[in-house]
Write a structure and sequence with these properties.
The chain is of the alpha/beta class and about 350 residues long. It has twelve helices and ten strands. The strands form two sheets. It has a seven-stranded mixed β-sheet, with helices on both faces. It has a three-stranded mixed β-sheet with strand order 5-10-7.
Length: about 350
């Protein structure tokens, strides 16, 4: 990768923050490391919305070495007090720090730590790989999953294995030259990148109260933008069960951990509905009791496709739970995912889950 070709692009990172005094310092430190690895112009634009803790004090005292931090504190009122408007405000403010149409607007979450190569790889996919927007992968650390308890970790890992299999089967069923395998299907606010020109063309970020991240990528596609889902653009997000945005990832974790074995899983379907979720019915939903069988059937489908006479996409494995912290290993060795097979998403060992089908 020729980093020098990318350095003339300006980058602005939008960072909405709601009561994140505990996790914000690590988030900003990781962004600064990524800015140092990139070596070009990077502005981090944090918007503290309706905070009641020391988030603002943290922003006020933060000094970065490689990026320039801009921040503001706002109070969203009435029907606008939700994640959709918080991210829109952060993205609009960050966009004002860019100039050229090919400059890159990015966003992550305040409870998230980006990988050291997050900026470089995102820009490479846009300016060399032919993408107009990049949806990166969000993973949780194994240590945080383990802290939720063994039964919770077992459930999350099962979901991770199932959605990893779905990633492969979807890619095999719907190959595309714009978004080749290995790819994932996660489109979350923890890792967003798009050109300034494209952001202006879609008229700014949509503002639904939940799933504003997926709404943004939907707007990109409607505008003719090419979205890449690369497995080498990674962030590490919180595995907490008490979140800041109602209907977000923390609520999904809490629901999965607390629900009964026979209760239907939200937007998690058996075959063949799993491959066309827009056409799925409520009776197609899996439970944790039936999920194991679905994983076995998915593995059988993958093995059958891999043994077909026509060339197939790169093979995938559904390995058992690893004994070490696979997430930390990847962080220390950024090239691992270039050689390995990855699914997508936010949970599971060794490969995480597709948030495309997560409760929102």
């Amino acid at each position: 990768m020729n980093i020098q070709r990318l350095k003339h692009r300006r980058v602005a990172v939008a960072l909405p923050a709601k009561d994140e005094e505990d996790r914000l310092p690590a988030c900003l430190a990781a962004l600064d490391v990524a800015a140092g690895r990139f070596g070009g112009s990077v502005a981090i634009v944090a918007v503290a919305n309706n905070c009641t803790d020391r988030t603002v004090a943290c922003l006020r005292s933060t000094r970065l070495r490689h990026a320039v931090l801009h921040w503001s504190a706002v109070s969203l009122i009435g029907e606008h007090r939700h994640a959709g408007w918080a991210r829109r405000l952060a993205l609009d403010t960050a966009a004002d720090h860019l100039i050229d149409t090919t400059d890159v607007l990015m966003s992550t979450d305040a409870d998230t730590e980006v990988a050291p190569d997050w900026l470089i790889r995102s820009l490479w996919h846009i300016h060399t790989g032919g993408a107009d927007a990049v949806a990166g992968r969000a993973l949780t650390r194994r240590t945080e999953r383990a802290a939720l308890g063994s039964d919770a970790m077992r459930r999350l890992n099962m979901l991770g294995r199932y959605y990893t299999a779905l990633d492969w089967l979807r890619a095999d069923r719907e190959p595309t030259s714009d978004d080749i395998w290995p790819r994932h299907y996660y489109e979350g606010g923890a890792s967003i990148a798009l050109t300034l020109d494209l952001y202006r063309r879609i008229g700014g970020a949509p503002t639904p109260p939940v799933a504003e991240d997926r709404a943004l990528f939907d707007a990109v596609r409607r505008a003719g933008g090419r979205v890449r889902h690369p497995v080498d653009v990674r962030v590490f997000t919180s595995g907490r069960t008490e979140g800041r945005a109602p209907g977000g990832m923390a609520d999904a974790f809490a629901q999965w951990i607390a629900q009964g074995e026979d209760e239907p899983l939200h937007e998690t379907y058996a075959f063949p509905a799993a491959l066309t979720p827009a056409q799925a019915r409520s009776e197609d939903r899996l439970s944790f009791r039936t999920l194991g069988g679905a994983i076995d059937r998915a593995g059988a489908m993958i093995r059958a496709r891999q043994s077909a006479p026509t060339p197939q996409i790169e093979p995938i494995l559904l390995p058992p739970l690893l004994d070490h912290d696979a997430d930390i290993g990847r962080e220390r060795n950024p090239q691992f995912l270039d050689r390995g097979i990855a699914g997508l998403g936010v949970i599971g060992v060794p490969e995480p889950v597709d948030e495309q089908q997560m409760p929102t």
